[in-house]
Amino acid sequence: MCQQEDDDASPIDLEKYLCDIEMPFKKTVTRESFAEHLEEYHSQVNICLQNESTQYKAVDQVIRVVKTLCYLLDEVETPAITDAVRKLRHSVNLPKTSSPEVNARSAFSTNGYTSAVEEHLRALTNAVYDLVKLYLCSFCLTFPVRTDQEHQEKQRDIQVASSITEHVHFRLFAIHGISNAWVNSYEKYYMMCALMHNDGNLLKPLKSKKVGIYKSFFYHIKWDELINFPISVALLPLETILSLSLYGVLNQNSTNSPDSNKQHKGPELLGKVTMPLFDFRRVFAAGTKLLSMWTSPPLSSPGPVGKSKNLEARIILQIDLPNPQVDVLYVSSLEATLPDLQSLGTPEPDIRRRIEKLCTLASSSRLKQGDMQLLWDQRYHCQRHEHSLPKILASAPSWDWISIAEIHKLLHHWPPLSPVCALELLDSKFADTEVRAMAVSWIEICSDDELTDYLPQLVQALKFERHLKNSLVMFLLSRAQGNVNVAHQLYWLLRDAIQEPVFGQRYSHVLGALLCMCGAGLRVEFEKQTRLVQLLGALAEKVRQSSSSSRQVVLQEGLEEVQLFFQRENCRLPLSPSLVAKELNIKVCSFFSSNAVPLKLALLNADQLGEEINVMFKVGEDLRQDMLALQMIRIMDRIWLQEGLDLRIVNFKCISTGKDKGMVELVPSSETLRKIQVEYGVTGSFKDKPLAEWLRKYNPAEDEYEKASENFIYSCAGCCVATYLLGICDRHNDNIMLRTTGHMFHIDFGRFLGHAQMIGSFRRDRAPFVLTSDMAYVINGGERPTSRFQLFVDLCSQAYNLIRKHSSLFLNLLTLMTQSGLPELAGAQDLKYVYDALQPQSTDTEATIFFTRLIESSLGSVATKFNFFIHNLAQLRFSGLPSNDEPILSFSPRTYTLKQDGCIRDASIFSFQKRYSPDKHYTYVVRILRECQSEPQFVFRTFDEFQELHNKLTIIFPLWKIPGFPNKLVLGRKHIKDVASKRKMELNMYVHSLMRSSAEVAQCDLIYTFFHPLARDDKTEGLDGLLKIPEETPLSPAIGRVGGEVKLSVSYRNGTLFIMVMHIKDLVSDDGADPNPYVKMYLLPDPHKTSKRKTKVSRKTRNPTYNEMLVYSGYSKETLKQRELQLNVLSAEYLRENCYLGGITLSLKDFDLSQETVKWYRLIAGPF
Q1: Are strands 327-329 and 158-160 parallel, antiparallel or unpaired?
Q2: Model confidence over 148-166: pLDDT tens digits?
């Protein structure tokens, strides 16, 4: 596939290479159509001149051909054509003064013309050729535009732009090719004209006059207005952009408005176009320009009658710039020498600290005006913070011709930036060519592997270049020429980017350059891949559009056609050039049942030792967001591995191969959590053991299971951190997968950056990330918390802090993608989510505490499991209740019916009872009386189980059929007798109303399953015991035995001692019951106990995780050297004094307070 010697000698045919590529605009102009219409034009002119008797009709034919030519050129009609046509019509009836001798080769003789018709035909011909030349120069770079030798321009004189004091001005002429939808919908139009640089306005935009629609050959919007900016050419930065935005004032009487059902309060943006004022030669723009405007999708729909314009049709803006006799050339000012830092003096300590803080900000977008002024004033003192250059340049007050010398001087004397930091200089807010070229020179040192990680952002950065001839394009093409992987990925990124309506043409030129230089071998590979994608795209669309009953037949027929393609030759897949397929395994191919109905394809590997290649091909969905999320996760994994942390991340490939279509690699030996959980019934998501038992099934040996559990712990930690930082939403159990080896990973990233799916006014994703009790069961190795969960917390904290150190990298990468067209990454608000999630200004200790709270919040969220349950119901197309062998309540092993148990005559809450296993709670005694039974039955249900019953009833029945449920929210302590007594009355009213509801509700299987006696009900004390419930004092952990260890972090800064209580492990008790541990701490001596600090209480665990900070402020290091830290671990008890579990006394003189100390300490028996 590499470039060969023959490739260097072969001719380049750009048009041939690009002919099969889908373009964002329809191609109305071809060589053949041009030749045909120009030949017809000359033929009609000859007829007009030769037949004087029918000259009137002949003129009409000439004008018809001219109109056709204008239509071919996107309905552009220049003033010269309009004027020539008008004069030709007027002069056709005038008397002819002489008869010319018609030349056999041309429409005109060399003897000159005296008749008005001949004169105006000459003018019309010149106008037509001027339009053709103008159009081809504007839009058809593959068409060579030749001029006669005698008309070739001589070398023009040059005038330096910095000497031009004249204001920037141009004539806004007209917009051509507008649709009937605009004609029928808008009354007036105006243009906002702005001069821009670094993504901002150089001065206040100017507004044109409001005009209506005009028609000659075609409808057009005509201003013919002079726009004059109050700024001289001398002050313009080299990269100044002329930005023109078209607005339409809605016709209030129109019923054909694209948004006629909406209330419009103001003008609507219809289209926009930008143009650099200096070309790649640094010459100021001059003469007439045709600019292709992009239009907003809602406003480009076809009108009810006449010509239909769509996103593929051009709307052309015509402007006229001054055309002086000289070329106005931008010449940079001379750089001054860098001043001596010693002569500048040293900033005050407060200023230095402020500068250091500003230089360490993760993004220059967080700078305020005062901060920017300070950084620019102290720019020479910031050089020791080399990564601060983007912030310094973003703080520059001006980029005009006078100021640019200072900026370039600073740039050229700055220490080289790392490639990661240099990426920020390719953002749209840095337009300067020299700055961008320097950034590319710094990025050039990165390896090819690192380059491919950043390639999507570099392709996006091409939008912010002012001209095609730039350092970034040359860099990308040169690296693609030297590495097939880079060329392969660049090819597909460019093919996908071509679909953008604004920058598609620019990307097509870069793609053409890539195809010209990559060599015949690689071009053949790209052609085969493109053909395969076309076949799969057509097949996927057919399957998607087919009825569910005929999809399998359609799929089989289409697969046979794809198989014929493979019979001719092997093909590399767009996912990677290393994946070579030789044929389809048709028997295994199928489709998924999701909304997009993607194809599931199995391909035989051309490598005899390679495994079968499994991919998914999808149409109808934009995969670019999935690509971006997977890229971010891949970069996170690389950072973790470089730091020695292997979180066993599963990386898989995804590629967008065009508009709303693409290919995704399928990970073998994996299953969705939903399929694992529903093996235990539709309520399997509420149970703790499904994941562990599924892993045990595939890893029966103890060492295999331990390895799988370890993989699960590490990969789950990576998933939690990555999905939180990227704000991945829509996390139901079909979007999370588990390999038989224990590796967990996420798929389908259709929602990210915190854009959660809403159900009414509620977020569907309420937890910070997905961490459920069945995952904790695998992590702990059982129901009780163990030290393995502490390992999980430490892994999450370590991974989180490692990514935080690279906050600027992720913010830069995402910033470069804000103009990619992704709906959920469109601006600063979306980036703010990532900035807030990264907590870049927090210390590692503070971030560890923060993420520990997130873990607790996620693990304690009932919403995640309920979300899983709802998804299970949706996938099963839940229309009632499952069959008897599928449990519908988390605490009931199966489903029971009225027919099985007998009709319930009455149900009421008889009493309540306090329980202590697994935690302190109250259970409610339900008295049930059935028909044909003389004695009542008693069952025991908790408040949460009543809540589960009500939640599931609301899924099956409309809310108006179900009584209201008591409020779960309780202010203060909820596990006390007064709360239980109040709830007993409320639940009794609820049960009473429920049993008197309609028969459809009161006799449903869900209610009879809820009231069916369970095995635990039989083990509970009988009625006599219920009448006298002894309030026994629960046994407490023994005081005599002490054991376990505590992990502490001790640090000191700014006069404050920070003690972070991280974990405690292996606490012991004589009676075997799990304690409720918490930590109490004193700074001794402390006779009045004013230094007491406490952590929260962890319930029922021997291995609690706290990650809580206990702080002592106002102490000097010398004072602390004379103090001791006393730490006690106690168990919180309800009905007796708290129990002592162990403690330790630490002398602070043994600590080096200049650095953080993290260490495990063994607990011993000591004074309480």
Answers
A1: parallel
A2: 444 444 578 899 999 999 9
